[in-house]
Structures are given as structure tokens and as C-alpha cells.
Specification:
The complex is a heterodimer of chains A (275) and B (295). With 275 residues, chain A is an alpha/beta fold. Chain A has 10 helices and 9 strands. The chains are: A alpha/beta (275), B mainly alpha (295).
Amino acid sequence: MVSLDLSRMVSIVARGLSIDFPLYHGESRSLKKVMLSAATSRLARDQKQRVVVKAVRDVSFALKAGDRLGLVGENGAGKTTLLRALAGIYEPVGGTLSVHGQLTALLDLNQGMNTDLTGRENIRLFALYKKLSRPETARLEEDVVQFCELEQFINLPVRTFSSGMMLRLGFALATAIRPEILVMDEWLLAGDAAFVEKARHRIESVARRADILIVSSHSAGVIKKWTNRAIWLNRGCMVADGPTEEVLRAYLPSAEWEELKRAEMESVDQILCAS
Amino acid sequence: MTDTQVPSVLIFSTSPPPEPRFEIRSGLGWRDQFRLAIADLREAARMSRLAWTLSVLDIKLRYRGSLLGPLWLTLSTAVMIGSIGFIYSYLFHTNMTTYFPFLTFSLIFWSFLSTTMTDGCNTFIQAEGTIKAMKLPLSLYATRTVLRNLIILAHNVVVIVLVFLLFRVPINGWSILAVPGFIVWLIDGFSVCLLFGVFCTRFRDVPQIIMSILQIAFFITPIMWQPSQIKGQPLVTLLIEVNPLESLMHIVRAPILGEPIGWLAWSDALLFSGLLCVGSLLTFARLRGRVAFWI
């Protein structure tokens, strides 16, 4: 099915992707305990049965340029783990994953920021992480400072920021780069009301320019608005995969689904009235 | 090599999962795992500017808000060397003009070795936020740890220069032979950061074990005492000969202090470094993919 052309285009192909997440509690973190359990043979077999969360099980899909995929599912369904795997952070234990294209993952609020460094230093560091040239770095700095409206605070350690300010900076940084593939978690759409509006505008422009968008969210509204395809994950397994509308109808309790449709109609009405 | 402008290619290929065990077999053969590990190293080499910035920031942060800044490194070393030097040369009844330069050099270079090892344990733990946020070559963090310790060493070398001037230690052209020795150190340091970094991320009690071993190593390696002081004690002589850390110290120290270069020490040091590099590469190739889960 996968033609040669795909390899030259932006694409993501996952086949039978499985990820186990080992859970370490106090005991298995200790070398002594593990050595002891290895030395005493009969105990070993029991001890080695470490607790492993089967975070993602046999997930397959193929995305090409223009696809917008939404991941829905309850807390702990494996959405974030799957996103991390797609971003190349977690290596799968089974299956294959091939990603073609420059990818940015917006997973953590602080984007690897060092809170002891000042805002400006963090911006420069981020530019290095993303391998930007010096003029690009200067542009990034200007863009981020202007967007997050923290001119007065940008030379203070990020540690002194309020969580809202930190969110703004992290968001501004994360969305300053325009990737071919954008993988994002739901945190992006939190924040104070005034900022959310501004943020939405910015993320929409980034998402629109990305060739492939993968977003995971609890909010059916977000998924519905931004994606044309959805995968419903439950306990790491794919329950449904198809057009967003159909998957959401199956995923949401019927009352919520009705509400979502109604809200959508209202917003259309509002736009019509306004114009 | 792929350019950032052109879509870069990233392919993981693995086969069905085995039983959950410690040595997780992702199904990739050794060849593929090595290929990925080498790709990681190569990519980190291309990001050396980032590694440098990270290590400079590490140092800056440590001394931010202090009056003298990183100069504290130089100053505190000078104070330590001064006090230990006087007390020990009195206690050991040794000739201060040979003992003092020896002690200064050994102590400062030893602290480079030992802090690289103890910092090496935290190579990945320290970078938790970044490792979980974006895909970067893991060996980048090992480079960062080595560079950071190199910067600290550069501050302390000032003390060595001062002591050498004070005691008029003759430096001749042969001292240049310390350079290849030091290059071996840097390669070892990098390997240690990868090896210890991986193990300490998985087993959080390993750093304590390493610190205790280093504590012993500090006393059995000629740093505070000169090998010439214990001549004739077969046990101690044996201890010096089999101690790989002493061989490593020797290949850098001997050319600088104008001692005869022991080729046995060189072969020991190379053998030890070779084993270390192989062990570290095997470990890294095998467990690289697990680090993100362990953090």
C-alpha cells in the first residue's frame, strides 16, 4: 500500500504500534533489590514481573499531508504516550513507525525550559534546540517577547513567573516554529480568557500551515473544530478510527453530542448575525 | 545527511514485544541498535554549540548572584591546595618544592576525573524536562557534562600555573606529551557519562555506590601522597600498578612534572579506556531507547 512517493512527502505511518510503560516504585529502583532477586533464583521469576502499563496496544494508522488527526479517550487511555512516541521520545516495543517531515511536539507546558534561567535565556536556548541561525534567533526573540507581553519580566528568572506567565512564554515559544508535522497535547488551550483568544488565533495559524496536525484533547469541541479524522483510544487500544464526526458520535454520550451540535449551530448563527 | 529544511527521515522498526523484563529486547538486532546509537552520537556532534551553551549556563547559574562568580572556583581551590599542601608536607616531612606542585596538579586533575564521574550519574536525570519534551540525541547531554567539567578545570588550572611559577617547576617541550593523555581522558569522560548516566537513571542508588568507590580510589591513588614515599612496600606497589586510575593520572601528570613516562602506564590506560568505551557503547546502544521511560 505504501508507495515510494510517500517517503518523499510528509507522512506518518504507524503499524501495530505498541508501547509498554514500566512503572518503577521504590523497590525496583534499587540496584541491591534487583541484584538480590537475580541471585536467588526462584524468587527472580516473581520479582522480574515488573509492573508494566500497556500504554498503547497495536495502533495502526497512516497520515499524509493535509490530514488532521484528533485523539480522543479518557484520562490514561494512552493519548499522551502515543503522542510522545510519534515525537520520537518514547521508542515503541512493538510495531513500526515511520515519520517523514520536520516535527514539533507541544507536549509539556515548559518546553524543556530551565526555570532558573531568565526568559530571554530560555528563548535563546530554545533557538539552539531547534537549530535556528542567529538572525532567526533574533526574530524568534522579538516575536516571542511581543506575543507573550512579558517585556518587563523577560530578563527575570522564569522561576519568578506566575504559572500564567510561564504558560504564555511556553506557548509563545512552542508556537513560534512552524513545523511540517505538529503534534500537540491539550494543555495548549488553557490560560486566562484574554490570552486564550490570542492564543487560539496563533495556534490556528500554526496548525493551518502544518502539513499534518495531531491533537489530543478532552474537549470534543476542539477535536471537532480542528480535525477531520479521529481515533478513539481506550486502554491503549484503538476503539474507533474514522471521520471526526462519526467517531465523536460514538465516543460521546448522546446528550453531550447533542449539546456539541447545538453549540456549533449557535456559533454559526452568531457569525451570520455579526456579518 | 539530512538537512533541517528537507524533511528529515526518522524510522523506528521493531518487532512484536517480548515478555516485560529488564533487558528489554525491542526486537532490533545489534546492528540496528548500533546504527541508531552512532546516529545519536553523530547528531550530538553536530549540536556542539548547544552543548557548549548548556554547560556555560550550568556554570553561570551556579554562581549567579555571587560577587566573584566562577572566580570562586579558582579561589576555593587555591585555599584548599594551600592548606592541604602546608599541612601534609609538614606531616609527611617531605620536600615542599617537589610535593607542593605534585599535590596541586594531582588534586586538581583528580577532581576533574571524579566530578566528571559523579556528574556523569546525573547526565540524563538532570535533563529530564528536555528529554521528555523533545527528541534530541541523548549523547548531547554527555557532551554537556564533560564540557561543564572542562570549564571548571580551566578555572582551576590558574592555580596550577601560579604554584608552578612559585616553585619554579621547569616545563619543557616534552610536556606536550600530556596532550594525548588528556585526549584519552576526555574520551573516557564522555564514555563514563553515557555508561553511568544510563545506569543511574535506572537504578537510583548507583550514584551512592560510585561515590563510595571514588572515595576509596582517592586514597589508594597517589594524589595526596607520592609513589616515591612508599617505596619498598610490595603491596602498595602492586596496588599502584593495577589501579587504572593511577595509570590515567600518570599519562597526564608525568610529562608535566617531568617524570619519566611509563609506557606500561600508557598501555594500562589504553586498555582500560578501550574496555570502558566498548562497555559504554554496548550499554548505550542497548538501553538508549529506555532512558526516556526511566526518567
